[in-house]
Amino acid sequence: MEKTFLKTSRLNQFLETLRLFGELHGPTVSESGVHRFSQLHDPAELQLDYRRTQIPPKKYLLPFREEILHYASGSYSEGYAGAGDLVLFGVHSCDLEGIAYLDRVFLAEPVDTGYATRRSRLTLIGISCEPDDFCFCTEGMESSSCDLFLDAVADGFRLSSHSARGTALLTAAEQLLEEGPPPAPRPSGPRLLPQDPQLRFSEHPLWRRFASTCVSCGACSVCCPTCYCFDVREYPSLSGGGTRIREWDNCLFASHGEVAGANFRPDRLDRLRYRFLHKYCGFTPLQGITSCVGCGRCKEVCPVGIDLRELTAPPEREER
Amino acid sequence: MRRMKLAITGLTACSGCQLTLLNCEDELPELLGHCELVYFPLAESGNVLDVQFDAAIVEGAVSTPKDLELLFKLRNASTHLVAYGTCALFGGVAAMNNRVSTRRELLRSVFGAGEKLPESFPPVPLANFVSVDAAVTGCPPEKQEIMELVVALAAGTLPPARSYPVCTECRSHENLCLLLEKRELCLGPVVQGGCNARCPATGIVCEGCRGPVREANVAQELELLLERGFGRDEIERRMSRFKPEWDYGKRS
Question: Which of A214, A222, A235 sits opposite B172 (nearest CB)?
Answer without folding.
Answer: A222
